[in-house]
Specification:
Blueprint: H1 14-19, H2 29-50, H3 54-63, H4 73-81, H5 96-112, H6 114-129, H7 138-154, H8 163-180, H9 185-201
Length: about 200
């Protein structure tokens, strides 16, 4: 008669990542504003590259057991709209747990589209070596156009931001997405957010 070895039940997928998002000190309102802005921009880059929809984000929230934080389209819109860069922003204050939830959702989606992100970054490296503009590759051209159009439509300074500056921002975010799509991407993104917010708050 064989005996069944009882193995310990693995934790929900979101729990280990949540523990990897430490808070050494509660961010002040200015730091949270910076975190909100950065999170919205990273999501904007994901949308522009992989055509991720609100439904995709809500599905990711359910898979990560974060539906309490991001329950429907309205709650997601309010979280996104809390970015100080947004037109008509200020409808909701983002708290730390909501920020961490968005980090987990972003990195989950980035990991799901890792192959596409890798291909885009490889194309960028190739064109850079050839001294050619990113728009020469259809994938990068579409990404840059989508990002620029969305930024100009949604952000307060969208119409006043030079195209070259938008291109630089979009390409930087693309490279960041490659790191965030890795296994430890959520920790990388969270630590980067904290570092940038502290640096920005310090002037």
């Amino acid at each position: 008669m064989s005996t069944t070895v009882q193995s310990s039940t693995p934790p929900p997928p979101a729990k280990p990542d949540w523990q990897n998002l430490p808070i050494q000190a509660q961010p002040d309102p200015q730091q949270l504003d910076n975190i909100k802005a950065q999170l919205d921009l990273v999501l904007l880059a994901l949308e522009a590259l992989a055509e991720i929809s609100s439904e995709d984000m809500l599905q990711a929230a359910n898979q990560l057991d974060l539906a309490d934080m991001v329950s429907d389209r309205v709650s997601l819109w309010r979280l996104r709209q809390s970015s100080p860069l947004r037109k008509g922003q200020g409808r909701k204050r983002l708290d730390v747990d909501e920020a961490r939830s968005l980090v987990l959702i972003i990195c989950h989606l980035a990991k799901n589209h890792q192959e596409l992100i890798r291909r885009a970054v490889a194309l960028l490296e190739q064109l850079t070596e050839q001294n050619r503009e990113p728009h020469h590759a259809a994938l990068l051209g579409n990404y840059l156009d989508n990002f620029s159009n969305a930024y100009q439509e949604r952000m307060e300074n969208g119409d006043d931001t030079p195209p070259s500056q938008l291109t630089h921002l979009a390409l930087k975010l693309l490279i960041d997405l490659l790191f965030y799509s890795a296994t430890n991407g959520s920790k990388r993104l969270w630590l980067a957010l904290l570092e940038r917010s502290t640096r920005a708050a310090g002037g």
